From TrEMBL, chain A:
PANTHER family: ABC TRANSPORTER PERMEASE PROTEIN, SUGAR ABC TRANSPORTER INTEGRAL MEMBRANE PROTEIN-RELATED. It holds the Pfam family BPD_transp_2. One of its GO terms (cellular component) is plasma membrane. It is found in: Cell membrane. This is Nucleoside ABC transporter membrane protein. The keyword Transmembrane helix applies. It comes from Celeribacter halophilus. The chain crosses the membrane at residues 6-25, 37-58, 64-84, 96-115, 135-161, 189-209, 221-238, 245-265, 271-289. The keyword Aminoacyl-tRNA synthetase does not apply. CDD domains: TM_PBP1_transp_TpRbsC_like. It is a multi-pass membrane protein. The lineage of its organism: Bacteria, Pseudomonadati, Pseudomonadota, Alphaproteobacteria, Rhodobacterales. Keywords: Cell membrane, Membrane, Transmembrane, Transmembrane helix. GO terms for molecular function: transmembrane transporter activity.
UniProtKB/TrEMBL annotation, chain B:
It holds the Pfam family ABC_tran. It comes from Celeribacter halophilus. InterPro entries: AAA+_ATPase, ABC_carbohydrate_import_ATPase, ABC_transporter-like_ATP-bd, ABC_transporter-like_CS, P-loop_NTPase. GO terms for molecular function: ATP binding; ATP hydrolysis activity. The keyword Disulfide bond does not apply. Keywords: ATP-binding, Cell membrane, Membrane, Nucleotide-binding, Repeat, Sugar transport, Translocase, Transport. Residues 5-236, 252-497 form the ABC transporter domain. Its main location: membrane. This is Nucleoside ABC transporter ATP-binding protein.
Length: 308, 503
């Protein structure tokens, strides 16, 4: 079942692995943005999560503790962003950019002594019975827990925003912070929580790269994935389901073009490297252009809230 | 009548101002109590304290005899105090039921909530579909959402902050019916407004505030509107006057204009035609959001239209931008003062340069002459009595009324041939409003054509020669303003937006 040296089962299975970090980070950023905060520091929080997770996993020998440490690391960095933008009322765009620059540097510093070490590996969870289904089994049901967790997170985030009161309040804060304040909701608290969730998810995404996808530590390991996650949130019109589509599409074409390169396809390498970005943008633009009117962006996105 | 709320000696100080100074009054059960006062008199601060958004520095409140110190709006709502805000506290991207749920402590399940919204809204003659997105509703319908949100919590005291400023006369009548029904059920209402005739029609008691202090109480049913206005202002009111002049040559003509705005929540202009002659004031009424902003933007040149749609002084100006239109004498002043008419963080001098550079020749070889600009800014400040330390002050530091006088004066002193203004006196106190109206009348008397877009019908009736109304993007044929009745105006404004069936 090979097409030009590419095995579709392996291709699809590795698609899910390649997409998971983007999916986690993008979901977190989507929740942050739904509360009206634009955090451009996703890349910085991811790489901080990647290094924290890597160090914790190597030192304790437990990948699970690694992921916990990654979430805490990402969240800690996002709290710095929260402090700047919610307490000191700095503008969100430069604060987010600063977070990325700082996170990248911090990760380099922390990771200096961990280059070239192999981290403990995360066991795959083979879902009983389902994993024996031909083709679908090996593609979908033989992954590690974090892949399933990320898929569960898509549903959880969607249901949280649509059906729970806390989700409604979060959307309300992102839609009109002055009105939410007038009704007695704590705008800053809600935003801190959303920023923290975004940081933790970005940290998890980063650790998935350093512990599973690569798995080792090198400087700049996230290689721009955080920026892709940011773009996917926008092109997905702030909808969890479309974030999933966008992340898998990007991950899928990344894997495909790598395989094509390896198989020696007669297409310039530069074009192949470009293709995931192009395809993701085209597809998501087409999806969101179909819906009539409006981009669905939270109305308060990036706006500073003064209590007065 | 038993006493529901008693306010004693409330004082609240902000840096530099004492917004409320020893304010006392009381509201009886089932009483409609009016709170009167100009902008800046301290009405908003007072109700914010009653609703738990602010804490008083001194004084206390009693509700049904017990001490009442709401720490936040939730506590106020739990005690039976509900509020309908002046600037709607609604969320445009959410639907009606979600908006209502956000204003409740323990909302029921969405399906039950939707059912009770339908039921309560029909009981009170304010039909509302719980599944509609608020961004698509008219201003009157949005207000219904706020009122229903309050009613579902069975309030003892309902605070209404300027509730009629966005309604058609028919909608006002329906609102009053609802309020009277509530009153008959024993709900007290604290009604804030500066529309005196409404207060005379609706309220049992009135407390009048000036500069943070209670300056009088009266029974509005027996006091004349003029007396109340003079109590509010603290001086004799000056009524604008005009010499009636003969209409001159045709200045501006809009023909069959169709225009779709870029903003998805905007209103499409359909087949709009109008004619404006020299020396004429055309008043355009209508409820907010029926195409006012769009009409202003096509006349100012911010938005371009089809060829031949707009003719100015015999010349097709449809393709010209704002500066080209200014050059030939077509000037405009938009509704939003901060951010549209003026740049908030720039000084008055800089703001003067923004629109007056061309007509006042404030630049040479593209370099601004700051001296000349500053003296023009001073001229505006002097001629329009703008209260500010000087032309170097930032626009945002001026109060709404003063900034409005500045942005209107800046255009008027450029000697326009046609001047289009949207909401010239919105949020401006009575004496400043009279000055602005007088300036518009003088402009027309000097031979310019003036278009005034406004939601204040009294204002339009006072100054315009002809009246037309915008309704969902179409403009009615203009009629002579003199002798128009309220009913005729209401019909021109599109009636009560499908409300009549519900009565």
């Amino acid at each position: 079942m090979d097409f030009g040296g590419i095995n579709p089962v392996i291709l699809l299975a590795s698609l899910m692995v390649a997409s998971t970090p983007i999916l986690l980070a993008a979901l977190g950023e989507m929740v942050t943005e739904k509360s009206g905060v634009l955090n451009l520091g996703v890349e910085g929080m991811m790489i901080t999560g990647a290094v924290c997770g890597f160090i914790a996993a190597v030192e304790t020998g437990s990948p699970t503790l690694g992921f916990v440490a990654a979430a805490i690391g990402g969240m800690a960095l996002s709290m710095l962003f929260g402090l700047l933008t919610q307490v000191f009322l700095t503008t969100q765009v430069p604060a987010g950019l600063a977070l990325t620059l700082m996170g990248t540097g911090l990760a380099s510093l922390l990771g200096q002594n961990y280059v070239g070490i192999k981290p403990p590996s995360l066991p795959d969870l083979h879902v009983p019975l389902l994993q024996d289904i031909p083709f679908i089994g090996p593609v979908v049901f033989q992954h590690d827990a974090v892949v399933y967790l990320s898929l569960f997170a898509v549903v959880a985030v969607w249901a949280f925003l649509k059906y729970t009161r806390a989700g409604l309040v979060l959307r309300a804060v992102g839609e009109n912070h002055a009105a939410a304040h007038a009704l007695g909701y704590k705008v800053k608290l809600v935003r801190f929580a959303a920023i923290g969730f975004g940081g933790a998810m970005a940290g998890l995404g980063g650790a998935y790269i350093s512990l599973v996808r690569v798995p080792q530590w090198t400087d700049g390991i996230t290689a721009g994935i955080g920026w892709i996650a940011l773009a996917i949130v926008v092109f997905a019109s702030w909808r969890a389901g479309r974030v999933l589509i966008g992340a898998y599409l990007f991950g899928g074409i990344t894997v495909l073009q790598l395989n094509l390169q390896a198989a020696g396809a007669k297409v310039p390498v530069e074009l192949l490297s470009m293709s995931p970005f192009l395809a993701t943008i085209v597809v998501l633009v087409v999806i969101s252009a179909r819906r009539h009117g409006g981009t669905n962006a939270p109305a308060m996105l990036g706006r500073i809230f003064h209590t007065s | 009548m038993t006493e529901l709320l008693k306010v004693v000696g409330l004082t609240r100080e902000y840096p530099g101002v004492r917004a409320n100074d020893d304010v006392s009054f009381s509201i009886g059960t089932g009483e409609v109590h009016a709170l009167l006062g100009e902008n800046g008199a301290g009405k908003s601060t007072l109700v914010k304290m009653i609703y738990g958004l602010e804490k008083p520095d001194a004084g206390f409140m009693k509700l049904r005899g017990g001490s009442y110190t709401p720490a936040n709006p939730q506590a106020a709502r739990a005690a039976g105090v509900a509020m309908v805000f002046q600037h709607f506290s609604l969320f445009e991207a959410l639907n009606v039921a979600e908006n209502v749920a956000l204003g409740m402590e323990n909302p029921p399940k969405m399906r039950e909530l939707a059912a009770s919204i339908r039921q309560v809204s029909e009981n009170y003659g304010l039909p509302l579909d719980p599944d509609r997105i608020v961004g698509d509703l008219s201003a009157g319908e949005r207000q219904r959402v706020e009122i229903i949100r309050c009613l579902l919590q069975d309030p003892k005291l309902l605070i209404m902050d300027e509730p009629t400023s966005v309604l058609t006369p028919q909608e006002v009548e329906i609102l009053f019916k609802t309020l009277r029904k509530l009153q008959s059920e024993g709900t007290s209402i604290l009604y804030i407004s500066h529309k005196l005739e409404e207060i005379r029609a609706l309220c049992d008691e009135a407390t009048i505030l000036r500069l943070g202090k209670v300056v009088g109480e009266c029974d509005p049913k027996t006091t004349t509107a003029r007396d109340m206005a003079e109590m509010m202002v603290g001086q004799t009111l000056h009524v604008p006057s005009r010499e009636s002049s003969e209409a001159g040559e045709m200045l501006l003509e809009v023909k069959d204009l169709d225009f779709a705005p870029a903003n998805p929540f905007g209103t499409r202009l359909k087949n709009v035609s109008l004619k404006l002659r020299a020396g004429e004031i055309l008043g355009i009424g209508g409820v907010a959001g029926n195409g006012q902003d769009e009409l202003l933007s096509v006349l100012s040149g911010e938005a371009r239209t089809d060829k031949g749609a707009i003719t100015f002084d015999g010349q097709d100006v449809s393709a010209l931008g704002p500066n080209a239109r200014r050059r030939i004498g077509l000037l405009t002043a938009p509704e939003e003062r901060l951010g549209h008419a003026a740049a908030p963080n720039m000084s008055l001098t800089e703001n003067a340069a923004l629109t007056a550079t061309i007509r006042k020749k404030l630049s040479k070889n593209n370099f601004l002459n700051w001296k000349k600009t500053e003296s023009f800014a001073r001229e505006v400040i002097k001629a329009f009595d703008v209260r500010t330390p000087g032309p170097a002050s930032a626009a945002r530091s001026l109060s709404g009324g003063n900034l409005q006088k500045f942005v209107i004066g800046r255009e008027v002193l450029q000697d326009p041939k046609v001047f289009v203004v949207n909401q010239p006196t919105w949020g401006v106190d009575a004496s400043a409003a009279a000055d602005i109206r007088q300036a518009l009348l003088d402009l027309a008397a000097g031979g310019a054509g003036v278009i005034v877009i406004s939601q204040d019908l009294d204002e339009l009736m006072e100054i315009s020669d002809h009246f037309a109304a915008l309704n969902e993007g179409t403009l009615t044929a203009p009629r002579k303003a003199k002798g128009l009745t309220v009913d005729e105006i209401g019909l021109m404004m599109g009636g009560a937006h499908d409300l009549e069936a519900a009565q």
